[in-house]
Amino acid sequence: MPSEGIGAGILLLFRCITFGYTLPHTGETMRLRQIEVFHAVYSSGSMTGAAAMLNVSQPSVSKVLAHAEQQLGYLLFDRVKGKLVPTPEAHRLFAHVSTVYRDVDRLRHVAANLRSGDSGHIRFAATPAFGVEVLPKAVATFREQHADTIFEIETLHLDQLNEALLESRMDVGLAFDPPKTPGIDQRTIATSRFVVIAPDDTDFGDKTRLTAADLCGHPFIGLNSRGPLGRMLSTYLEPVQKDLDIVTWSETYHVAKALVSCGAGVTIADEITARSGGTSGIRLLPLEPELEFDIRVLGLAAAPLSIAAQNFIEHLANSIEAFCAPAS
């Protein structure tokens, strides 16, 4: 059943269970259980075969079939020498029942898939740093186990991401340490940190961890202070700001990393950006003291996430941990 038909299918199933289903062209009303039993008896040709198909007892099948015949007002099967022979009415009824039975059976499969999180449509928005490597890898590995899941991916800046969630254009968001926004729930799924990115040949002596002061005297690529991470980093560097040899300003961490790769200087960036897209020609060094921040998923408070989305979030958290593991 197509995803857009799931709502109609659920309504059909509820109607069959609660009120019975009125068969087209015949006007007959049958309960879902009666439809199942009639379909099984007609298909197998016997009460015993129907009981085996439905995994119930033979007396249970006989009882439901008798109630169906009583409700319909005519026999569905003649008992001839111990065998069940469908009546002409049964033949005509079966043509209509088969369509209903297939639809309900298909709906059951859809419902089971939704319960296990094996299918669904996940609309996911993330800030640009995650779009280079972390998110694509997580989607690809998730679909290895959940091949029926369809993703819709966008990379948005934080204000755009919040707007997309509030307008219900996206189901889930992913961002670095976002401020609280009315109507949007947040959940921390990982913790990351800032690291120094430097050309391989940069001389820091024998230091394996660097303070902000250690960067003074090296060409430094500065970053804008907009956004939660920008403000955090600006505060961290404030004590040495006047001593930094800033040779270039960059609007984004990815451009700053590219400048480092070209030998333009050193910079500080979030570890996700630093590790995304390869580290050839550069090296990453942790800061001392560490400058950490949360990675959080965001969702509309008034719209609970699907099981598929919840499963993907757990998978994403593990993917982020594995991605940053080499620096642990």
Q: Would you write up a description of this structure?
A:
The structure is a single chain. By secondary structure, the protein is an alpha/beta fold. The chain folds into 3 domains: 3-116, Winged helix-like DNA-binding domain superfamily/Winged helix DNA-binding domain (Arc Repressor Mutant, subunit A, Orthogonal Bundle), CATH 1.10.10; 120-186 and 295-327, D-Maltodextrin-Binding Protein, domain 2, CATH 3.40.190.10; 190-293, D-Maltodextrin-Binding Protein, domain 2 (3-Layer(aba) Sandwich). It contains 12 helices and 13 strands. It has helices spanning 6-18, 32-44, 47-54, 58-72, 88-116, 128-131, 134-145, 158-166, 227-237, 253-261, 271-275, 307-324; strands spanning 21-22, 29-30, 77-80, 83-86, 119-126, 148-155, 172-176, 184-199, 219-223, 245-250, 267-270, 282-286, 292-300. Helix 2 (32-44) crosses helix 3 (47-54). The longest helix has 29 residues, at 88-116. The protein is rod-shaped, with a radius of gyration of 31 Å. The two termini are 46 Å apart.
